[in-house]
Amino acid sequence: MAEHDPTKPRPGTSRRDFLRGSGLAAATAVLTAPAVAALDEAKAAAVEDGPKVLSGELPITLQVNGHEMSCKVEPRSTLLDTLRHRLDVTGPKRVCDRGSCGACTVIVDGDTVYSCTTLAVSCQGHEIRTLESFDTGATGVPHAFHQHDALMCGYCTPGFVTACKAMLEKNPNPTIEEAKRGLDGNICRCGTYVGVLEAAMAAAKAMKKEA
Ligand code: FES
Ligand code: FES
Fold this sequence. Notes:
Blueprint: H1 15-31, H2 33-49, E1 58-64, E2 67-73, H3 79-86, E3 105-108, E4 111-114, E5 127-129, H4 141-147, H5 157-170, H6 176-182, H7 193-210
Parallel strand pairs: 1-5
Antiparallel strand pairs: 1-2, 3-4, 3-5
One FE2/S2 (inorganic) cluster (FES) binds near residues 153 and 190.
């Protein structure tokens, strides 16, 4: 009987079975020689240096709204949890807690970040700003939101105000399209987008007058 060529489907084997079989064979091949050697090397290194495991609570100091704030957190603690539950900075809100709504937005070194998906320990040595530090006077972003009815339930509002502030610091004279792009990491379930954009443009105008 002629030997079967393994690269060809067996008679009676479906194309799906053939592809599944070839994929498995390829994966096995990849995992054999180089991968096993790398794994052995990594295991040897781990035994030599000892595994680096961070556990328990660590003391950290964060620069928040111009103040040094210290607390202890587990290494896995998010910036949002740390701000709200350890440092009593409750402006950033937890809504989705998975980096998709923007309610927890804070400014780190001038850029907006979702604090619910940022580790607190990684923010040491960086400048963190939340809306507690913003100007609430007539030329501030919060005032513009109030004047332009840019909120309903208000859950998204701290995130929008923060994103708007960061956007205007980078681009004090945005077009509507630029403002939309600058705020596109934030979601409002109540649909206040028209008011939010009006507020953003009004805040830009007010800040320009003040300057
Ligand atoms: S709570 Fe962080 S993105 Fe929604
Ligand atoms: S005002 Fe309710 S989610 Fe935006």
